[in-house]
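Late entry, written up from scratch paper. The run itself happened at the end of the previous shift, but nothing got recorded in the book at the time, so transcribing now.
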Amino acid sequence: MSNVDFDADSFIESKLNEIREALGEGRALIAVSGGVDSTTCALLTRKAIGKNLLCVFIDTGLMRKGEPENVKRSLAKPPLKLPLKIIRARRSFMSKVRGLTDAEDKRKAFREAFYSTLAIVAEKEGCNWLIQGTIAPDLIETRGGVKTQHNVLEQIGIDPKKIYGFKVLEPISTLYKPQVRILSRRLGLPESACERQPFPGPGLLVRCVGEVKPGKLSVLKEVTDIVERAFASSGAQQYFAAVIDNRIADAPGEIVRTLKSTLQLHDEILNVKILQSQATGVRDGSRIYGRMVSILSPPEKSNPQTVLDRAISKSAEFIESNPEYTRLLIETGGARGRKPYSAIIRAVNTEDYMTARPLRVPWTMLRRVSSRILNGNLSLSTVYYDLTPKPPATIEFE
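Output as recorded:
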C-alpha cells in the first residue's frame, strides 16, 4: 500500500471496529515510549475503548536523559491528554542484560524483561490484552532473521497468553512509517510528535555496543544528548550516537590497498584500522555480524571533504566486496592517551527505514561536534562517523 493509496479515515473506522470486537468490555494495556508508533496506537485504541486502556512507560534505565518524565509530560498536555503511568524497572532490565555481548542475546534478554514487567502490571491492573505498536518493518526484520524486534511474538511462535497471561493485538502492523505518520496526524498528534525520529524499543541497549556497563551507558547518554542537539536541524530522518569499547587492530594490507584505490588516494599514506567491536549488517535479507573498518583520518595532502564524500559514495561497494566487515567509518576526532571507549555518530536519510543513505555532512561540522563530544567526556578516545548505507549495514548497530 503506497502513501497515496492509504486512506487514514477508512483505516481508523476499520480498526476501531476491530479493536472493539476483539476487546469487548475488557481492559487493555499498552507500553508507550513517546515514539510515533506506540503513541499513535495508544490514541487509536483509546478512541475505541476509552478509559479501559491503561498506558504505561517502562523506565528500563536504557532511555535518554530525562526521557520518562519528558514523555509523561508531553503526552499529558492538550490536545492529547493521554495519562501515562511510569513503571520503574531499571534493576530488572540491567540484571537481565548484564554480561551479554552478542546483539541478539541482548535483544532477547530485553524482550524477556519487557514482557515479564508487563505481565506483572497486567495482572495487577486486570488487563487481559496488550496493545502493541508493531509496524510492518518490525515483522519483516524479525522473520527475516535480520534482528529480533522485542514487539514481535506470535509471528515467531511465542504464545503471550500462555507465557505472560495476556493476548496481543497489533492494530497498525500492516503499516510502514510514512503511513503511521499520516495516521498520527489524523488522530490529532502534534506535528513535532508525528515527525519525532525513531528510537529503538530496547533503547540505548542496542547503541551501547557489546557489553552494557553502567559507566559506558552513562557516557552514551551524554554523547547522545550532544549529537541529537547538533543534528536536530541537519535534515536527517534519524541521527544518534553509539559507544563501543576502544579496541582496534591494524587493517590487513589488502584492505588498505583496496581503500586507497577506491578513494583514489594512490600517492597518499592511508591509515586504516579494524574496530574489534562487532555490529549488525544485512545481506540477502538476513542478518550478519561483523567488525567495522575505519579510515583513521583523511591524508594530510587531501581535501577532507572530498575524501568524506567519496567514502560515502563508495562505502556500500567496499563492504559488499569485503563481506567479513559490516561498516566503513571515518575518524572525525581523537583525544590523547588511552581511553576505554569510542563514540560513533550515525545520521541517515530514508523514506521507509527499510533502506537508508548516510547523511552528507560538512567535514567542519563533524569536527566541531566531535570536539564537543571529546571535551565533554574524559572516557572517550575517538569519535567516528558511519559512512555505510542500509543495506549492507542496518541503521542501528545491534
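The first helix runs from residue 8 to 23.
(Scratch paper discarded after transcription.)
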